[in-house]
Every structure is written in structure tokens, then in C-alpha cells.
Amino acid sequence: MFTVKIKSDFSGAHNLRGYKGKCEDLHGHNWYIEVEAVSEELDSLGMVIDFKEMKKVLDSILNELDHKYLNEISYFEKINPTSENIARYLYDKISPFFQKGKISKVTVWETDSSMASYSA
To answer: Catalytic: 67?
Structure first.
């Protein structure tokens, strides 16, 4: 099995509705994102997915989040924009751009020591 990974980042603000503690208040993060793709076979060029294409798609999606108040994005109107939910959101947004089953995992780093991943 071959695995490839790209990284990118965005900055945004959020608050966690119903949370009892500091994260209930408006605050921001510089999130770091990792997207992994897998394949048992390589394409005719010897790649799982072209890194450039993966990065282009991811960055276009992250541009929708960058320097935004995440709670105001329709996906997060009823659920908190936690790292876990952001990982699933990004997975669901990026997966349709690539062959079924190739995107295997999205990881969202909220801090240097705190991350969440989503894989289907």
C-alpha cells in the first residue's frame, strides 16, 4: 500500500457552544492540516495522486475557512467547529475531487500537541 500526504494551514476563530471553560469564549487558532491518500497501485506516472493537484484542491477549500469565524459557516451552524468536526468537514469536501477511496485520512492540528483525525 502506498501512502502520500500533503500539509497546509489556515487561521480562523471559533467558540464552542455549551462548553464550560475558556473554549466557550471566542478565540483563534493557526490550524495545520494533513491530508493522506492511499492506493495499492500507482498511476501511469508512478503516483498515487499528484501532490500539486491535492494541494490545489485543499488550499481552495481552506481559503473558504481562512481568517473566518468558523461558527458562521453553514456546516457549523448546529455543530461545534471542533478539530474533530473540522477534520470530517475537510474530508467530506476534498474526497469527491479524487478517485473513490483514495483520500484516507484528514488530520487537523489545533496546537503543536493537540490533533484530531477523520477517516472513513
So the answer is: yes
From 53, 64, 67, 72, the catalytic residue: 67
The predicted structure's pLDDT at residue 111: 95
- CATH number, domain of 45, equals 3.30.479.10
What's the confidence (pLDDT) of residue 100? 67
Cα separation, 69 vs 83, whole angstroms = 14
Q: Residue 14, annotated ligand binder?
A: yes
| 99: pLDDT strictly greater than 90 | no
Q: Is 9 domain-assigned?
A: yes
Domain coverage including residue 91: 2-112
Provide the grid cell at 109: 492540528
In contact, 17 and 77? CB cutoff 8 Å: no
Q: Does 109 show up as a binding residue in the annotation?
A: no
User: What pairing do the DSSP bridges indicate for beta strands 2-14 and 68-69?
Assistant: parallel
Q: What nine digits make up the cell of 63? A: 481559503
